[in-house]
Design goal:
Length: 101
């Protein structure tokens, strides 16, 4: 699902209800500054998540809970200043992009 450049400012936990088989989600180039804990838990088959080029400043421990199949997470070009330990576990197949451009 492509929702890039849509002026989204937050990702809430109930927004993906009914999309249980979603595997690819692209939310880049928005204004997202808040991702609620468990925001993606209703899409457990998600493999690729693009959150690049937003305004995310902190990565919290429960932000990506319930995503055992996540293999690619793009958080590049966000003003990230803090990442809580274990924020990306148990995503054992994860390829993470945190590069600042």
């Amino acid at each position: 699902m492509y929702l890039e450049a849509n002026v989204l400012i937050a990702v809430q936990s109930d927004i993906w209800e009914g999309l249980h088989s979603l595997q690819f989600l692209f939310l880049g180039s928005n204004l997202i500054n808040e991702v609620s804990p468990g925001a993606f838990s209703s899409v457990p088959l998600l493999e690729v998540l693009g959150l690049q080029n937003n305004n995310i400043s902190e990565i919290h421990i429960n932000m990506f809970t319930g995503l055992p199949f996540m293999s690619q997470l793009d958080l590049s070009s966000n003003p990230i200043t803090a990442i809580e330990s274990s924020s990306f576990s148990p995503m054992t197949r994860l390829c993470l992009d945190l590069v600042q451009h």
